[in-house]
Write a structure and sequence with these properties.
Blueprint: H1 7-23, H2 26-31, H3 37-129, H4 135-194
Length: 195
């Protein structure tokens, strides 16, 4: 029995056998016993294997095309995602810069107010040590005192607002502690009476 291991050789052999098979007439085919049954069987097996390989090649090619389409789709999504990331990073940088600007402006306002306070304090101390007070010094001194007094009043009001809830919480806690201590005293008295 013949065994064919090389695919190219098998295809060549198969086409040669099929050519001989087609060239002979049906009557000659019946009479001719020159082609062994094993060769015919091998030929049909090779044809089936070839058909199977063609089918597998077709399915593999289709799978490859599908995967290439998926790859193209994902590459497109990656590009879009990268654009979104870049846009968001740009937005984040602009927001951070805006926030830094706002913080810097607040700091500047705070420093200006602090400087004004120091100047007013300096004016007050120099005017109080100077032997003569002029009307312009008096008005500046009065304005400074009024501004400082208004700030202090604001702070007092703010502290009152903060202290009121704290005072209420302290009172509530004291009530709770008193009621708990009364209950514990009552329980200990009850325990002593039982003995």
């Amino acid at each position: 029995m013949w065994e064919i291991h090389d695919t190219h050789l098998a295809v060549t052999f198969g086409s040669a056998v099929s050519t001989v098979w087609r060239c002979t007439t049906p009557s000659k085919r019946r009479e001719s016993s020159g082609v062994p049954v094993a060769v015919t069987h091998t030929l049909s097996t090779l044809r089936l294997a070839h058909a199977k390989l063609l089918e597998e090649h077709g399915s593999t090619s289709a799978l490859l095309k599908r995967r290439e389409a998926e790859l193209a789709h994902f590459e497109k999504r990656e590009i879009e995602t990268q654009e979104v990331i870049m846009r968001l990073e740009s937005d984040l940088r602009s927001v951070e810069e805006e926030l830094k600007t706002k913080v810097a402006k607040r700091e500047v306002r705070y420093m200006q107010a602090l400087l004004a306070s120091y100047k007013a304090e300096e004016t007050y101390t120099t005017s109080s040590t100077s032997p003569t007070l002029t009307p312009s010094n008096m008005s500046l001194l009065d304005e400074t005192k009024l501004a400082h007094l208004d700030k202090l009043k604001g702070l007092v009001e703010e502290y009152k607002e903060v202290n009121e809830p704290l005072t209420q919480q302290i009172q509530d806690l004291e009530k709770t502690l008193r009621s708990e201590s009364k209950e514990s005293v009552m329980e200990s008295v009850a325990g002593v009476n039982r003995e």
